[in-house]
Amino acid sequence: MWSAGLMTSRAVLATLLLSGGAALAPRAEAQAQRPAGDRAFLERALGVNELEVRLGHLAAERGVSPEVKAAGQKMIANHTALRQELSALAKRAGGTGVAELTPEQRAAFDRVASQPASGFDAEFRRTVDAGHVRELAMYRDEAGRASSPELRAFAERRVASLEQAVRAAKAASPGGGSMGAGGGP
């Protein structure tokens, strides 16, 4: 009788463990997927940032107005520092930390680079302003779902910086076509 009770207790315990394990599996799987989501976000953010660095170099070299040239220089400085932060975060999250442009980003760069001098500044501003709006949405989304507290804090800081850049661009040109005086975050 004692051995039958022990066997029943073991069976109940095994059933509880198995059912509890099954109940916990989706939660553990979701938690495991989020770090992969953090890595994917960081790789995408590195590409966005790399586009900003390259556009900054382009503006510094080809900008017609002193404001666009200065904005380019500021973008180079800001986004080079940002590249280092993003790369370190990506490596800590298990990613490569290497920035790669997507085909869409290459096309945006090529579109700005192909502009004649007469249209360069305006196309540069439009591209950077539109990029900041998209980047703001990307960082807002990540700030709300990052599994890493470090990444969440970083994303929140970027949101604040990008909100400021978007507001400055709108204030500089109510029609929405001009970067603020700061040259972007």
Helical content (DSSP H or I, runs of 4+): over 70%
Total strands: the figure is 0
Estimate the global geometry from the Cα principal axes: globular
Strand content: under 5%
- Which residues sit in consecutive blocks of at least 5 with pLDDT less than 50? 11-32, 176-183
Highest-level CATH class: Mainly Alpha
Major sheet: none
Count of helical regions: 5
- CATH homologous superfamily label: Ferritin, core subunit, four-helix bundle
Provide the succession of SSEs. Answer: HHHHH
Which class of secondary structure composition applies to the elements?
mainly alpha
CATH topology: Ferritin
Indicate the radius of gyration in whole angstroms.
Answer: 24 Å
Give the integer mean of the pLDDT values.
83
The rounded distance between the terminal residues' Cα atoms is 75 Å
